[in-house]
Amino acid sequence: MTNRLEQQMKFILEVDKLKFVNRQSYLSDGNRKENDAEHSWHLALMASLLYEYAEKELDLAKTMTMVLIHDIVEIDAGDTYAYDEAGNATKREREVKAAERIFNILPEDQALKMRNMWEEFEACESPEAKFAHVLDNAQPLMLNDATDGRAWRERKIKKSQVMQRNEKTKEGSKEMGDYVQEIIDRNVENGNLKDA
Predict the structure, then answer these.
(1) Which residues face 194 on adjacent strands?
(2) Are residues 18 and 75 in contact, defined by beta-carbon separation less than 8 angstroms?
(3) Given this model, what pLDDT does residue 1 score?
């Protein structure tokens, strides 16, 4: 086996750890919380089905790769809940440190490519990154909606928090932005989100 293949396989084994990073969103049946690997797979499938709603033409393969790798850093940094102010204050520092370690398991050319793609996602400026963020924000809303707002109710999340997190959704997709707004409005009406 070549050194390059060894490095690639070592990375592939390392990212298997995403299966052990639990998120805050419950699966649609409410029995348990999803993990990062399930979340990333779900986003890649969403990208393949929903890219026609992107505001600008995008590279689908790049978008799918972006959503598959965007949470890899959480192997070291952990999942930071979207509405955790204290955790979000240190998130970037923890995730950069993780990116340096994890992506550098790969051969140099692939490490650079993956790290740059992760940074592109974080910057949220390209059409691919904007649409990837749309999916990353819409998917947990969809799961919260399916579980009658279980995670939101447990954490007493407010409409204003969800609105702030999704303030740029329409930049990536107007239709998905409308879909997200419908979910938010329905969950305020149902009492799953506090109207504040």
Answers:
(1) 158
(2) yes
(3) 65
Whose structure tokens read 């740029």? 168
Burial 69-80 (b: 16+ CB within 10 A, else e): bbbbbbbbbbbb
The CA-atom distances, in angstroms, between 94 and each of 16, 108, 152, 166 are 20, 22, 25, 23
Question: Which pLDDT tens digit goes with each residue over 127-170?
Answer: 999 999 999 999 999 999 999 999 999 999 999 999 999 999 99
- Counting other chains too, the contacts that 180-189 makes at CB distance below 8 Å and 24 or more residues apart are 180/137, 180/138, 180/141, 183/141, 183/142, 183/144, 183/145, 184/141, 184/159, 186/145, 187/144, 187/145, 187/149, 187/152, 188/159
d(Cα 167, Cα 183) in Å, to the nearest integer?
14
List domains and CATH numbers for the chain: 3-189 (1.10.3210.10)
DSSP annotation of 17 reads: G
Give me the amino acid identity at 186: R
Rounded Cα gap, residues 46 and 67, in angstroms: 10
- CA–chain centroid gap for 38, Å, is 11
- pLDDT at res. 78: 94
Helix (H) or strand (E) holding 64: helix 60-69
Per-residue pLDDT, 195: 83
